[in-house]
Amino acid sequence: MDSNDLSNEEDITHGDKLHLLKEQSFVTIAETIELVEDEELTYETKTKKSNSLEEGTKKVEQQGKVGTKSVTYQINRENGKVVNKELIKEEVTNEPITEVVLVGTKEVSSKGSGSFGWPAVGGTITSKQGERWGSFHKGIDIAGVSNKTIRTVDNGTVTAAGTRSGYGNQITISHNNGLTTTYSHLASMSVSTGDTVQKGDKIGVMGTTGNSTGIHLHFEVYKNGKLQNPMKYL
Q: 185: which residues sit within 8 A by CB, 6+ positions away?
């Protein structure tokens, strides 16, 4: 009011211009306090080569975990406003745990050993190679499984994966040693042409596609292009 030569509010009328002054404190209240806070410590990530993992694959061997530290600050305030914040002490209360990631270096071989594994998870042979129903049955049939996973019998390269007349969904694998195997009537296929597979890898699921009377695997073996009796290799 004094800055505008006014003695009371009644002297103010519509249209008057007023000069407003910012209120200033004539006394500075200074204080210094200590503040203790918990802060996170980030963990490091390290990689380690592993020849037990295939090249191009990764696996976390040890999960990383953040640590904590207790930090003490000295804070100066004037009239309630922080004018300075200074770190005066810090103490690690929990060390961070470094994350360790394994990086595979093992080369995947596409050449088979010639020693076959079983192409299914359990099961029994329900039909062997030979004359059957007036025609020659080229392979063996395996059925009676609870787990319908189909596996490759040896290392190799998938040379075909698709639908073939009479055989339904069929996968052909060259073991790059003169031997070739086929897996037919599959419900689904987990590999594609050109894939490299290793002995025991899942390649599909047993089914009844194509000319089939029930859920089973039809398995054939060829050597240098000539049909073989699968029982010689299993």
A: 167, 168, 169, 170, 206, 207, 208, 209, 210, 212, 216, 217, 218
